[in-house]
Amino acid sequence: MTDKSATDTPTTPTQLGFGVDVGGSGIKGGIVDLDTGELVGERFKVLTPQPATPDAVARGVAEVVAHFDWAGPVGITLPGVVTEGVMRTAANIDKAWIGTDVYELFGKQLDNRAVSVLNDADAAGMAEDRYGAGKGVDGVVMLLTFGTGIGSAIMINGNLVPNTELGHLQVGKKEAEHQASSRVRDEKGWSYEKWTEKVSEVLKTYEALFWPKLFIAGGGISRKSDKWIPLLTNATPVVPAALLNTAGIVGAAMAVSQGLKT
C-alpha cells in the first residue's frame, strides 16, 4: 500500500512579486515572497544615472528587471510625490521628473506590463506595517524616515494614505525636516540628547494631529536606535524599522500585487 500522506497534503504556492526602489544613488530591486515579505535570493543594484533624468532612470529600472528575467508585474518607488500617475515633486533626482507621466514612461521600457509607481516612503511604510515593526498593530501607524529630510507614511488598519510629506509640516518656526532630520544633526554637530529634543517636538505635533498607535523610525540613523529612541519624550511608542534596506522593494512589490496606483 502506498503512503499517500506526503502527496495528499495540499500546498499553497508561494505568491511572488517584484519591486524596484529608485534612490538618489542606486536603483535596487528583487523578487519578493509576498507571504513572508522576504526577498527570494539577493537583491540587484545599479547606480542611479547622473543626471537622473526620467529616461535614464527608466532604463536602469529595466536593467534591474532584466537581470532576474522577470516577466510579470513590477512595482516601482520614486523619491517624490506621485498623483494620478504624474510625478509632482523630485527629491534627490533630476527636476525633469516633475510633470512626467510615470506609467507611460515605465510602460515603454517594460513592454507595457502592469506597473505600480509610488512614493518611496509610502512603499516602506506599507512593508513595515505588514511584515515589519508595525505587524499586528491596528489603527494609525506612522513610518518616519530620518535622513536628508523626513519622509513619512501613514497606514490606517493596513491601508495607505499616500503622499503625506509630513517632513514639510511647519513645527514652530521651521519645517519639521529643517530641524529634526539626521542631516541637520550632522551639520550642527548635535549630541543625541540635543537632537532628540527637536525630534520629540516634531513627534508631539504629529501626535496632536493624527493620534497614532505607533511610530516606526527608519533611515540610516535607525540602526543606532538604542542610542536615541530612549531619549524621546513624546507619548506614542517609537520603534526602529525592521526591514531596513529591503522595505522599499517589498512595499513596491506589495503595491503592484494589490493593483495600487497613486
UniProtKB/TrEMBL annotation:
Transmembrane segments: none
InterPro entries: ATPase_NBD, ROK
CDD domains: ASKHA_NBD_ROK_PPGK (cd24058)
Homology family: Belongs to the ROK (NagC/XylR) family.
Name of the protein described by the UniProt record: ROK family protein
Source organism per UniProt: Gordonia jinghuaiqii
